[in-house]
Structures are given as C-alpha cells and as structure tokens.
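Morning - 1,3-dihydroxyacetonephosphate inputs below, output right after.
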Amino acid sequence: MRTKMVAGNWKMNKTLQEGVALATELKETVKNPSCAVVIGTPFIHLATVAGLLKDSPIEVAAENCADKASGAYTGEVSAAMVASTGATYCILGHSERRAYYHETYDILREKVLLALENNLKPIFCIGEVREEREAGRQNEVVKAQLEGSVFNLTPEQWSCITLAYEPVWAIGTGLTATPAQAQEMHAYIRSLIAQKYGNEAADNTTILYGGSCNAKNAAELFANPDVDGGLIGGASLKAPDFCTIIAAR
Ligand code: 13P
C-alpha cells in the first residue's frame, strides 16, 4: 500500500522564531498521525526545525535545492547541505520556481538526481496553468513535465519519488480543483507511471493534490481513490488548520 501523506509548504513565510513556534505547536498536536506528515520550510529553518522534530513523527522538507553538487555558486544551497540538517524530503519543480526562477525540465532533472544521491526524497510538483487547462491541454503538459525531469529515473530511484499535482490556477487563488478534476488527473498520472514503470510501481506511488486545499475541502479531495494526500500552502501556516487537514487524511 502506498504512503498517504499531508505535506506543508511554507513558501517564503515565517521568520525563524515564527517557524519554531509553528513547528513546536505542530509537534505538541501531531503525536500519532494516520498518515505521513511533512513540513517544507525555508532553508534557514531546516536545521532548527529538524532538530526540534527529531522525536516527532513529523518530517522536514526543503522547498528547493541547487542543481549543482558544490562549489562557486554564491547563494545556493546544495542537496548535501539540506540532508546535513536532518531534513529528509525536498520539494522540487514547484510552479513558483518554474515560473519565477526559470527552472527548466533539464535543471529539475539535475536537482532530482542530486536530491536522490543525497538520500533526500523528492516531492516533485507538476501541473498546468489556467490557459492550458482552458485549452484542454492539461494531460499533455503534465506528461511532458514527467518525461522532461523524472521519467529518466531507474525503478529503484522512482520508488523514492512522491508526486504532487498542483494545477497552477488553483494555487493561492481559492479556486480548488473539484474532487472529480483532481481524481481524473491523478488517475491519468498513475496510468503514465504504470506505462513507464509498471502497475506495481504505479500503485505504490504517492500522488498528492495541491492548490487551495484547506481544512474545509481536504476530506472530499482525499476521498478520491487516486488522491493520496495534499501539499498544502496557505493552510499549512496555521497549526489548527494544518492539523484538521492531517486528521482528514
Ligand atoms: P495554496 O495551498 O496556498 O494554494 O498553495 C498550494 C501550494 O502551492 C503548495 O505547494
């Protein structure tokens, strides 16, 4: 059976002190979750938050890593550095990084490989923009994103991948995909995995939904057979909301 998961993506929110306060609140509340729980924090929070959550079921993710292993890349943070903090996951391919920081399929392929080499489990994000959905092109977009950056992986490497389907038009907009739209896309993504890696690998791959998933709509999204959990932005910044979403999984 594949892992069910609720993951938070704090994005560029919370000072270190605010992040520690939120992680502390989550640690006190999330003691015995019925799914995997991950929080994605800014780089500077990672070591402190991972230390704080050491004896907790909550795991920690970076929101990015460099596409180079080490060296003269001022301001970058490598996958090895992320792993050295105690973080165990790395969110990669988020639409905000693709759009604002020009992360291409090739760059993301490198990042995924470096994350895996450093024993970080990628949470790899895919999803179409509004114009692509309106043109009925969402399937081809998502397929190209997978083929461009992660379908080069070996079956063994693939087993470490979590996917997050995040329709860009639903991120931070309050426009959630309907449960039927989410299920349809997740089933399609799973069929692509089955074609590439076989039915067992497809069955074992965790596919999260992200995009205005919140305490009110999480349960009906998670009720779909191919929606294994959520990647939560805004609603992961408030402990009660995030905990309600975890309980819905
Ligand atoms: P929101 O939940 O704020 O829409 O963000 C979703 C997201 O981008 C998670 O990675």
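Note: Residues 9, 94, 166, 171-172, 210-213, 231-235 surround 1,3-dihydroxyacetonephosphate (CB under 6 Å).

O.
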